[in-house]
Amino acid sequence: MGKNLKEAMKMLEDSQRRTAEENGKKIVSGDIPGPLQGRIQNIGEQGHMALLGHSLGAYISTLDKEKLRKLTTRILSDTTLWLCRIFRYENGCAYFHEEEREGLAKICRLAIHSRYEDFVVDGFNVLYNKKPVIYLSAAARPGLGQYLCNQLGLPFPCLCRVPCNTMFGSQHQMDVAFLEKLIKDDVERGRLPLLLVANAGTAAVGHTDKIGRLKELCEQYGMWLHVEGVNLATLALGYVSSSVLAATKCDSMTMTPGPWLGLPAVPAVTLYKHDDPALTLVAGLTSNKPADKLRALPLWLSLQYLGLDGIVEKIKHACQLSQRLQENLKKVNHIKILVEDELSSPVVVFRFFQELAGSDPVFKAVLAPNTAPSTVSRERHSCDVLNRWLGEQLKHLVPVSGLTVMDLEAEGTCVRFSPLMTAAVLGTRGEDVDQLVACIQSKLPVLSCTLQLREEFKQEVEGTAGLLYVDDPNWPGIGVVRYEHANDDKSSLKSDPEGEKIHAGLLKKLNELESDLTFKMGPEYKSMKSCLYIGMTSDDIDISELVETIAVTAREIEENSRLLENMTEVVRKGIQEAQVELQKANEERLLEEGVLRQIPVVGSVLNWFSPVQALQKGRTFNLTAGSLESTEPIYVYKAQGAGVTPPPTPSSIRTKQRFPGQKPFKRSPRGSDALSETSSVSHIDDVEKVERLSSGPEHVTLEANSPEGHPGAPTPQKADQTEDLQKKAQCSEDDCPQVEEPESLR
Asked: Taking every annotated instance into account, which residue ranges of this chain make up the domain PDXDC1-like third (predicted)?
């Protein structure tokens, strides 16, 4: 049957390939019409076989009851036998389930029925007299204990959380000595130690408990030992570590062959050993329904298609990928691998850290007792934010790697690479691992430089008036700053329209500088005050110049906005004043002309005999002086006055002299600071001298050339000296050599 199915699948694939070649397109399993187009991954031929099992199971369910019973029993027994042989679990039974935790819940029911003989009759009264205790590791999957209590109807005190090692061994392995102490205490209190859940590859970092020692402890107290974890897949390989090999002696184990082999919609499997079929039937591990037995059909077809060599090859390939990544990461600085047992764990967990005083920031509090806890916590928090950013960047750059970002209690934020759960589905290859390492190396300069500048940026902002440092736990950049304007209510966190306007203008000004830094305005929640977010950098940035530029630019924007508001208010008041004065002028004109001149006919006759010589009176508003003036000089002299010239606005800061191609906020190369300062000062002095020389003679020349003349006018000799000064000033501006003129030309 397996041969016929394989030939049918081959014929189907050949026909699809020929059709695709004729159309000039590549076969992609996700290229289907409808809303699922482009969203289904390439599942491969073994994936098609697993999906075919579900369809075939629906057809098989229509057979005659006797034939259906025989066929489903054969499929279930064959699949159980193959799995037990592949994963070295002799004389075991199998339970296939969709929910991964469902198998453990059934095992707990079996353990309760085995230890409490009257449970079927008395029910909860038996448990009340002698409460059962289920022991879980502190490194177990989140929510596992709550799920078991909900499924079994047990109170939460029936769960016992066993801590991991704190002094010796891995910090993610169960503390066996402390577990033994807990068991003794429960026995003395009249409780019944029921079941222990051990890990062969924890959900977080893939560490394996000391299963051999735990098995001895369970046999001593009559407990059931259940093992789960990703490292159980290595039982199919030729070489297996002793800690994982000890799992073959446990009472039950739960495996997930679907992700390991890249099989979609394949159920999880719980292998167990028990001699009483009646209790297994009561616990729900066995069933007489053909539909329950047909759950194994997709896995049965997939195992037939892959064969033993194919299964071993996929698991071996995943382990080789993890070993390859471990070896490459050992050569990369500032990357720490957290998995200590490298031989038995196919999971790689790593994180970025910056060496400070020869130690990891995570353990700096232990190695440096004089270090303040707040400083260590701040450094740890900074590394966590950067590791979260690194993980997201790597997931985007190398999506086939299947990386996940997780938070560990002791180490902080880390990046996990688990090829056993992702490689078969995503098609991860060795070249993808090399690309992943290259991406990590390319991001390290950005991480190191940003981490070094974060503390300096905070100190500079705290020491600058008008700026407030904002501690955003989710921002991986240099830092977050907010400008506090004059009307800013510091006690309130509500949105500030004036502050948003200033920060928007500040963001626009900073982006116009075309620096390597990225600036962003936030936060995303509009109910909070707006801030300026400074991004990451891989270059040495002059933080003092950056902070000064932010403060000065924000202050200029605030002053300009105030000037505009003040000008608007002045203009409004000036218009109102002009209207009042014009109204008074009209009343005065009526009094001067008399009432008779306002009558239409009489007024025309009077104006003809005795015209009125009235001046046109109006008002003009001087924006520079902010005063209201009469328009009489304009009509008398036929010219508009020039008014007062406003003084030039002084620059708030001097622009730092940069070398050609140097972008803003970058530090100057070594040895060039003194030269740049000297050259900038001398250049400013030269410019001031040239401006004095050029402005003075020009003014004198204009007075000398005026036709009226006045006392104190310059003589021709002084005019010649003035021309010489102008020439020298012009020559100094053009950086040309100063050459004395011959006396004959003078």
From this structure: 457-562
Classify burial at 147, counting beta carbons within 10 Å of its beta carbon; exposed 0-12, middle 13-18, buried 19 or more: middle
Q: How far apart are CA 9 and CA 52, in angstroms?
A: 9
- Using a 10 angstrom Cβ sphere, with 0-12 exposed, 13-18 middle and 19 or more buried, the burial of residue 100 is middle
Q: Counting beta carbons within 10 angstroms of the beta carbon of residue 725, is it exposed (0 to 12), middle (13 to 18) or buried (19 or more)?
A: middle
From the CB of residue 248, how many other CB atoms can be counted at a distance below 10 Å? 19
Question: Going along 535-659, which residue ranges are E strands?
Answer: 619-622, 627-630
Long-range contacts of 6-15 (CB under 8 A, 24+ apart): 6/304, 6/305, 9/45, 9/48, 9/49, 9/52, 9/305, 13/45
Across 64-202, the runs of DSSP E, i.e. the strands, are 93-97, 132-137, 159-162, 192-199
Q: Parallel, antiparallel, or unpaired: how do β-strands 412-417 and 404-408 relate?
A: antiparallel
297-329 and 65-86 are packed helices; what angle lies between their axes, rounded to 10 degrees? 20
Displacement of CA 389 from its chain's centroid (Å):
4
∠470-476-482 over CA atoms, to 5°?
Answer: 25
pLDDT at residue 47, rounded to an integer: 75
Token look-up 């062969």 returns 200
Return the biggest CA–CA distance within the chain.
138
Distance CA 88, CA 123 (A): 37
> How far is it, in rounded angstroms, from Cα 648 to Cα 651?
9
Can you tell me which residue has the tokens 């203009």?
571
> Among residues 214, 226, 219, which one has the least CA distance to residue 253?
226
CB 115 within 8 A of CB 228: no
Torsional class of 689: left (φ above 0), alpha (ψ -120 to 50), beta (otherwise): alpha
What does the pLDDT look like over 250-304, one tens digit per residue? 999 999 999 999 888 899 999 999 989 999 999 999 988 888 899 999 999 999 8
Q: How many CB atoms lie within 10 A of CB 228?
A: 29
One-letter amino acid of 129: N
Nearest to 466 by CA among 487, 440, 452: 487
Question: What span, in angstroms and rounded, lies between the C-alpha atoms of 235 and 237?
Answer: 5
Q: For residue 202, what are its two tokens?
A: 């924890």
The per-residue pLDDT for range 555-589, each reduced to its tens digit, is 888 888 766 666 666 677 777 777 777 778 777 77
| Residue 134, number of CB atoms within 10 A of its CB | 25
Q: How far is CA 558 from the centre of its chain?
A: 32
Could you give the count of Cα atoms lying within 13 Å of 352 in the half-sphere of its Cβ? 27
DSSP classification of residue 97:
E
Nearest Cα residue to 158 out of 207, 97, 111: 111
Q: How far apart are CA 255 and CA 268, in angstroms?
A: 6
Instruction: Name the CA radius of gyration of the chain, rounded.
Output: 43
- Residue 695, amino acid: S
296 contacts 96 by C-beta, under 8 angstroms = yes
Query: Residue 101 has which token pair?
Result: 């935790």
Q: How far apart (Å, rounded) are the C-alpha atoms in residues 466 and 683? A: 32
Q: How many angstroms separate the CA atoms of 92 and 205, rounded?
A: 29
